[in-house]
Amino acid sequence: MRKVLVLMGGMSSEREISLKSGKAVVEGLKAAGYEVETLDLNRENLTEIPKMKPDVVFNILHGQYGEDGRVQAYLDILGIPYTGSGMVASVIGMNKVLTKKVLSCENIPTAEYIVLKKETFGFNKVNEIVQRLGLPVVIKAATQGSSIGTYIVKKEDELAFAIQNAFSFDEEVLVERFIAGTEVTAALLGNKNPTVLPIIEITSKNEFYDYESKYTPGMCHHIIPARISEKARTGVENISRQVYSAIGCRGFARVDFIVDKDDNPWVLEINTIPGMTEMSLVPDAAKAAGISFSELVDKIVQYALE
Predict the structure, then answer these.
(1) Is the pLDDT of residue 223 over 60?
(2) Which residue in 168, 177, 226, 232 could disulfide with 112, CB within 3.0 to 4.6 Å?
(3) Using omega within 30 degrees of 0 as the cis cutoff, is the peptide bond preceding 274 cis?
């Protein structure tokens, strides 16, 4: 029986969600027949990982210190296989600015954007943003997940306030042109030739799929299959594979899109360690494909061992 160490909790602003994801993963792995141990990771117990002698680590740490390449680098040094993407893909996927640059370089459709740095930001930038991107715009803290530090701004006099709020989370802020349309997500499973699971349409009771919508029962709905055209569906599937390959992902990931009124998919971002709670999108997509939760976590472990 293989021994799996589940890394969960951690030190980021997404700690509570990681604990919920971790609990679900533990139950799924036990149902799949694995010996399971857990570790709520912090700076003091990092050296416990090699002492526990796992065959593989199931990394379900969301956000900084777990999803951003640091734990991946440590596990690489230890020579312990782990689920999900490697260090480089994790660094890129966690940083919205780096992701944007890769997408632009690969000619993958994504909204026009401006990068702001905290140390050089001045109010003269507000005029530049409006002139280049128009309104509304989307403000995003560069390295936060679960829509933390994300704001949709419709009025010019609200821009500076939203940007300053985003800077409270990060030294860099991404400002994107707002694209109206249907929000969908594509979950992918596999290494070199990933499978795209059924596309999910996301509706939210809030203005967008924010932290409250994601984790409060009744605040959002996952519609499977997504109510988009066949042209858009094919585009989402093909582009999500392009993104997965361009970033260098493996194991599993989730790519979020807006499909505009002309059926064109635009990439919003990639999640290299997507949530695995009872309200999460990847388990829902797997279920729609006929994959149970225990089968899903088993597949993710097997991809780590390939």
Answers:
(1) yes
(2) 177
(3) no
Looking at residue 220, its pLDDT comes to 75
C-alpha distances (whole Å) from 200 to each of 117, 196, 226, 233, 298 are 34, 11, 5, 10, 22
Residue-wise pLDDT for 87-117, tens only, equals 999 999 999 999 999 999 999 999 999 999 9
CA 292 to CA 284: how far, in whole Å?
9
- In this prediction, residue 143 carries a pLDDT of 86
The pLDDT, as a whole number, for residue 267 is 98
Are 49 and 3 within 8 A, CB to CB?
no
- The answer to whether 110 and 103 are in contact (CB under 8 A) is yes
Distance CA 27, CA 275 (A): 15
Tell which residue, 185, 189, 225, has the closest CA to residue 209.
Answer: 185
Class for the domain spanning 3-83 = alpha beta
Q: Hey, is 228 helix, strand or coil? A: coil
CATH number of 92-109+179-305: 3.30.470.20
Residue linked to tokens 């994790």: 90
Return the bridge partners of 40, or none.
8
By C-alpha distance, which of 67, 154, 110, 91 is closest to 264?
Answer: 110
Active site residue ranges: 14, 146, 215, 254, 256, 269, 271, 275
The answer as to CATH 3.20.20.80 being correct for domain 113-177 is: no
**Exposure letters 86-102 (e unless 16+ CB within 10 A, then b):** bbebbbbbbbbbbbbeb
What is the residue extent of each domain of the chain?
3-83, 92-109+179-305, 113-177
Count of beta carbons in the 10 Å neighbourhood of residue 289? 16
